[in-house]
Structure formats: structure tokens, C-alpha cells
Amino acid sequence: MAASVPPERRMANDIAVNLGHLPGESAAEAIAGHIGRFWDPRMRSRLLAYVDAGADGLHPLVIAAVRLLR
Asked: CB-based contacts of 19: which residues, under 8 Å, 6+ apart?
């Protein structure tokens, strides 16, 4: 049985795809803003831990957004 994709990874990547049309750093700022406003603190913590563990499968814009969240 294949391991399931963590929901934080799936949701963050979906946000990145939807906001990826924004130019340059604006996309990362918009993703960070969305996560900061709408995600439960526990979800944000799990996303940060996921990035710290290697960020396997995360969209590059999500990784940039996490840097802004810190």
C-alpha cells in the first residue's frame, strides 16, 4: 500500500498552483498570506516541520512562502 500524501503538502501545493500566476515574489507572499490567515496553527506547524524534514514533493513557491512565514 502506498503512503498517502500529507494533507498539508497537498493543500499547500494546490494553493501554489492557484496563485502561481502572480509575478515574482508576489506569489510566495500571497501563499504565505493565505496560509497565515486561513490555516489552523497546528496545520502551519506541520507544514513547517515537513519543510524542515526535506520538503519532499513541495512546490518551490510553497518553500519560498514558508521562509516568509518564519
From this structure: 27, 30, 31, 34, 61
H/E segment holding residue 37: helix 25-38
pLDDT at 51: 96
More confident residue, 2 or 38: 38
Check whether 1 has a pLDDT greater than 90: no
SS3 12: helix
Using CB atoms within 10 Å of the CB of residue 3, give its burial: 0 to 12 exposed, 13 to 18 middle, 19+ buried: exposed
**Cell numbers at 68, concatenated:** 516568509
